[in-house]
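EI: anyone free to look at a 400-residue chain?
SC: sure, send it
EI:
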Amino acid sequence: MDLDNLFKTSSNKISKQSGNIDLVVSDDSKFVDSVNELYAIEGFEKPEHIANLHDEDAWDKIKVKVRNVIIDFRTNNDIVDEVSDISTKLDVDINIIAVSNLDSIKVKDQVLSLGANYVLWDDELNELLATLLSLNGINKVQSTTKKTRIAKRVLFLGTKGGIGLSAITSLLAHTLSESANLKTLLVDHDSGALNSDMFLAIKGLKIRQTSADIVNKELDNAIAKTYVNKAREKLDYLMLERHGEGHSEHTNTLYNLSQQLVDEYNFIIDAMPLNGFDQLNPSELSERYHRIFIVCEQSVSSLRAYNGLKRKLEKTPHFLIFSQTRPAKDFVIPLDNAKVRIKQKETIDIMYEPSLEKIFVHKGPVGVMETKFSDPVRAIVANLTGKTIIRKKRFKLFNR
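SC: here you go
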């Protein structure tokens, strides 16, 4: 029997959204057939299917508009870790439905805390159907209490001015949103050297002032959204001009504003100059941030600043980036010697790229992604998301 067209007039029919599909992830053909049959009987649009999410080719299907991802975890004992990893890779607007045969309140609560939906497997698929209807607004009564997925916050801290902090974070935000297909908010804490809007090609930037009003008022999601500038479909930009009584609270104000938007994005990137660190409580950094990157260069002043930061950070885990904004021969200290001085062997090294600013201005971040400057940035994306982004080679008319 062809179930694809069965009961198309079902009262439970989910209204078709333009370009939106559901995706079933399982290597069990019986599971896939059962879900397909459910969709056919209920009059839902037939879902797509892939065997697993660990195959790089599988992510190509998720580049289209996916609404719900149904994942078969019935033979997986690491469901919490798997859901945590998957939620980082999927757009925050995509609903994750974890199907398990483990009747555990503890595991269910852990999955819900990650913003996913937990469905206990039953042969009739009653709970799966109830969850699908609830997620698509047909049934108001939910079978599970789904919590909102929360953005991963990433801190990039510069050790001095002119070190390439804006270029690195702008390119990272662009890559996360465009290549990794994840909603991203870039929060620029340095209003004194505004470059990120140029790097992201934002036109008509609306600069809002930090004042006592915003510091003291009760913030909510609606207020926070008025301060956000749109850069791309999945990339937004937030910055404030320091002003008045709010000057000393500039960093915390930006953090509090963006914290109202944590359920809107997969990643929030804080690009912060060294003077912003004074407003942070080092003991809270591990709780606030999913990853911490410190941007350094092989100069005496930058190395001194890093050593000072390292003492304040104590044992807080962080990654060190060496950014070369000029040719290596122009630095007093060679890169290898600089690493020895601060006792850091494992670093992310960004080599000098001639005419980087010119490429940003004329070709935008897409053009920069074709240069070697982008290689470490793509490595950071892999570190954050597990997704591999391949650098596109520049077009050459003749190969020699």
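EI: The first helix runs from residue 29 to 42.
SC: 👍
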